[in-house]
Write a structure and sequence with these properties.
- The complex is a heterodimer of chains A (about 110) and B (about 110).
- Chain A is built from no helices and 11 strands.
- Chain A has about 110 residues and is mainly β.
- Chain A starts with a strand and ends with a strand.
- Helices cover about 0% and strands about 55% of the residues of chain B.
- Chain B contains no helices and 11 strands.
- In chain B, strands 2, 4, 5, 6, 9, 10 and 11 form a 7-stranded mixed sheet that branches. Chain B has a 4-stranded antiparallel sheet with strand order 1-3-8-7, with no helix packed on it.
- The chains are: A mainly beta (about 110), B mainly beta (about 110).
- Chains A and B meet through strand 5 of A and strand 5, strand 9 and strand 10 of B.
Amino acid sequence: QKEVEQDPGPLSVPEGAIVSLNCTYSNSAFQYFMWYRQYSRKGPELLMYTYSSGNKEDGRFTAQVDKSSKYISLFIRDSQPSDSATYLCASTDSWGKLQFGAGTQVVVTP
Amino acid sequence: NAGVTQTPKFRVLKTGQSMTLLCAQDMNHEYMYWYRQDPGMGLRLIHYSVGEGTTAKGEVPDGYNVSRLKKQNFLLGLESAAPSQTSVYFCASSAPETQYFGPGTRLLVL
């Protein structure tokens, strides 16, 4: 069983809607949580990084971590067609080896 | 500043052939990684290095070898390619709080 689980989707939303993505993890030692965005035929790029529990906001993106339930979320407000990509969550207990989810494919339709 | 670069971008091998994938980073990072990405599996760590001259096994190391002779380079070798090694290979290097990924190498083993 993978240490980070993520629904692969695809998740299709109309332009302007809120995209809600989530992952669960099993390792209680994880304390760093990340979301990566990957466009087709490109390498992943870091979107958001959170340490321990709490919320973090960056423009249209909000990352949430609930360590009590081992739940990681990413919300994208006012979604745009350019947000169509695969979103990967990742976690680790110390900087070095990340555990990635399988990735969720998001399609934002005009 | 090129970030993380990978060579080659695409390669076709026959079963049993060998090849080396090259990763180079110009950010002076100590940590470097090799991942493979397969549909529905997300990113899986093959090998990683915490500094020049060091290497360690990741989640799926069998059939691969690595070397880190210079800090800026991390090589991934396939001694005898198998069809199961058909995948997209990503190299990454890390500073605290993030990993930077290369553009990927698509490998097809026939």
